[in-house]
Specification:
408 residues, globular
């Protein structure tokens, strides 16, 4: 029985484990963690000869080596953190960057079966969102507050859910290309998921989606002049922006930012010392400034366990009222890595993102666009602050890296 599961029918077992991970990803921290553990354990649930071969393959895999270095520097940062409890929590959240790629990168996965699994995930999200819309309307008589009500019940930040929606749109775009833009189903998916992104008010995901649409246009029209492609891109992006601006959640956030934005740092600082504004762009300017001040006096960082406390201490020094009250994280994964592990940790993370984009640019498939999403979203959010962001990156990047044969 055990031999049948883990040796004879191994591919089916692995695909089932990957499927369980996808089912639990949007709905449950606990169950998703269990499914991640199952995937990790599959590495050792194999014949001794295969385990040896996989271990050797891992240490020849450049992507895994970089991920291992990324986690290793976190481990070093934990050693000089004073807040041991927070350090352990941070390591636990980031450990999937080692555990998931160990198995995913060393399994012989059929590309078409994996892409079919991703499509099933898209259907799962589609019907799940449909049910959520109906529940939202019945319970609250509107779907415009969808961003707040449903996700409070699911206990998932809408920001992270927007990453799953981005992947679903990406899958439909690639399917359309395969089908030579025939058939209505994928167009329906794209419209539905784009509408869902708008309801979430996920500005950064919407902007990245627009950017990826432009990249797709340039990819699909290789023989068209640059000027014509630019005009087409600007027309589509402009139209999408006008549509997005009609959604109350998006319009409100844009209006607040435009109406209250200043461009002089001293003015921004003084304003946020006097009152608590709602301008999240100004918040990020002050948060990044705080991070730079910490790095100046801590070239090797403050450690994975102490970086949040260091930020809050800097908010107090600046008298940044919103920061003191809400205890903001760094809202920038790049800056967070510099604050946690200093110049070395920040450099490793930048190199990780560079490697992903450079390898992805070889064939510009799923790995490339998921990499773009993560690299850009990390500029304005601490994407790996919570489990959903880590699981998204630690699962899909190795998965697409494997099936696109980027290590060869």
């Amino acid at each position: 029985m055990i031999k049948t599961l883990f040796v004879t029918k191994r591919e089916r077992t692995v695909l089932i484990a990957l499927g369980l991970f996808l089912v639990t990803l949007p709905i449950s921290y606990g169950l998703n963690s269990v499914s991640a553990i199952v995937i990790g354990c599959l590495f050792v649930l194999d014949t001794p000869q295969r385990i040896k071969q996989k271990t050797q393959a891992l240490f020849k895999n450049k992507f895994f080596i970089i991920l291992l270095c990324f986690f290793g520097i976190q481990l070093i940062g934990a050693l000089y953190s004073e807040n041991t409890k927070q350090a352990i929590r941070g390591l636990r959240i980031l450990f999937p960057f080692v555990a998931l790629p160990m198995t995913i990168l060393t399994e012989q996965l059929d590309k078409q079966k994996v892409l079919k699994l991703v499509s099933y995930f898209k259907y799962y999200l589609f019907f799940g969102l449909l049910i959520a819309f109906v529940y939202q309307f019945i319970s609250f008589k509107t779907i415009l507050s969808f961003e707040h009500d449903i996700f409070a019940i699911l206990e998932i930040n809408p920001f992270y859910f927007s990453a799953f929606i981005f992947l679903a749109i990406l899958d439909s775009l690639f399917n359309l290309i395969k089908q030579h833009f025939k058939g209505i189903k994928e167009y329906v998916f794209i419209l539905f998921f784009s509408f869902s992104l708008l309801l979430l008010g996920a500005r950064i995901s919407i902007l990245i989606l627009m950017f990826c649409f432009v990249l797709f246009i340039f990819k699909l029209l290789p023989n068209v002049s640059f000027i014509k492609k630019a005009i087409i891109s600007l027309t589509i992006v402009g139209g999408l922006f006008i549509i997005a601006y009609q959604v109350p959640q998006v319009k409100k956030k844009i209006d607040i930012t435009v109406r209250t934005m200043d461009f002089d740092f001293k003015t921004i600082l003084t304003k946020n010392q006097i009152s608590i504004s709602r301008n999240t762009v100004e918040y990020r300017i002050l948060i990044n400034y705080s991070g730079i001040q910490i790095l100046k006096s801590n070239i090797f960082g403050v450690g994975i366990g102490d970086y949040r406390e260091a930020l809050i201490e800097q908010y107090n020094v600046l008298n940044f009222r919103a920061g003191k009250k809400r205890k903001f994280n760094s809202h920038n994964q790049y800056m967070e890595e510099f604050v946690k592990q200093g110049v070395i940790g920040g450099a490793i993370f930048i190199f990780l993102m560079f490697f992903v984009l450079k390898k992805g640019a070889i064939n510009k498939n799923h790995f490339y666009y998921v990499g773009i999403y993560i690299a850009l979203v990390c500029l304005v959010e601490s994407f790996f602050h919570r489990q959903h962001g880590v699981m998204f990156a630690a699962f899909f990047l190795p998965l697409f890296y494997n099936i696109e044969k980027l290590n060869e």
